[in-house]
Write a structure and sequence with these properties.
about 280 residues; alpha/beta; Rossmann fold; seven-stranded mixed β-sheet; globular
Length: about 280
């Protein structure tokens, strides 16, 4: 069903060959943070290609650089070495073709639900206010919140807030959606509902999605590929292709089998090296 492929740091983890260039390409990307205690290498020699419309999950221990890599691709993290580009253009600043969604919904409490989605359309050129409202309402309908457009943010459940955040991220029609543990704080039932929503949206619009998670089963449920990171300094150690039809259920037997395989590889990465003669 899936064969893990361990990559040397000099070899890119590549998407399946296509006639078109990859949507995202990283070459020898490294990131070092400097502080009072000295330098800390968060990422080391990351090579990665992601095709247009792929759904890729990053899995690894805390502090291995997954979120830092996502921020580099978003244009929010500067001072890295190596090359990073989207559609062949170097990533230097944030762009409208990339949207980031965080673990915290980051909604504005002084705006209602519709106002929060409209906010993301404020800088999109060429739209009348009527068109912005129509787009915002269509995206609330997409996430099942059309009846709550006038609701205050404090009136919403955690899952509803993340649905608003997802609608806000999608409304400007980015080609790349970057998601940093967006469902981590939600209860299990709400997460599973959102897994279904996200798979449906991905199938309908074929956006490129990069998704950070600590939950291996979540990654298998959602992704076309799961990339396994080593502890700091972050390296992509293995990739797992998820060849299962969608929609997928969190508790599918096939998902459980592949999750065990990835978890076993993860434990091998974390195991201390035996240095006995």
């Amino acid at each position: 069903m899936s064969t893990p492929a361990t990559s040397a740091t000099s070899t890119p983890i590549s998407a399946a060959p296509l006639a078109v260039p990859p949507k995202i390409r990283l070459r020898s990307v490294s990131k070092v943070f400097s502080g009072p205690q000295g330098d800390l290498t968060a990422l080391q020699d990351i090579n990665l290609e992601v095709n247009d419309g792929e759904f890729v999950c990053f899995v690894g221990p805390s502090g291995c650089g997954k979120s830092t890599l996502l921020r580099i691709i978003a244009g929010l993290e500067r001072g890295f070495t190596g090359d990073a580009d989207v559609d062949g253009h170097p990533i230097e600043v944030p762009g409208r073709e990339r949207t980031m969604m965080f673990q915290d919904h980051a909604l504005f409490p002084w705006l209602d639900v519709l106002g929060n989605v409209l906010f993301s359309l404020g800088l999109k050129p060429g739209l009348t206010q009527k068109e912005r409202v129509e787009i915002a309402r269509s995206h609330l309908q997409l996430v099942g919140l059309e009846r709550f457009e006038k609701a205050s943010i404090h009136e919403l459940s955690g899952g509803m807030k993340q649905r608003v955040a997802l609608a806000r991220a999608l409304a400007p029609n980015p080609r790349v959606l970057l998601m940093d543990e967006p469902f981590a704080s939600l209860d299990a039932m709400t997460r599973e509902q959102l897994y279904g929503d996200l798979q449906r949206i991905h199938s309908a619009f074929q956006k490129t999605i990069l998704f950070v998670t600590h939950n291996v089963r979540e990654a298998v449920c959602l992704a076309d590929r799961v990339l396994l990171f080593s502890p700091r300094p972050g390296l992509i150690r293995s990739e797992f292709r998820v060849d299962m039809p969608r929609p997928r259920e969190f508790n599918d037997a096939a998902a459980a089998d592949l999750s065990r395989e990835i978890t076993a590889a993860f434990k091998r990465i974390l195991a201390p090296t035996d240095t006995r003669p």
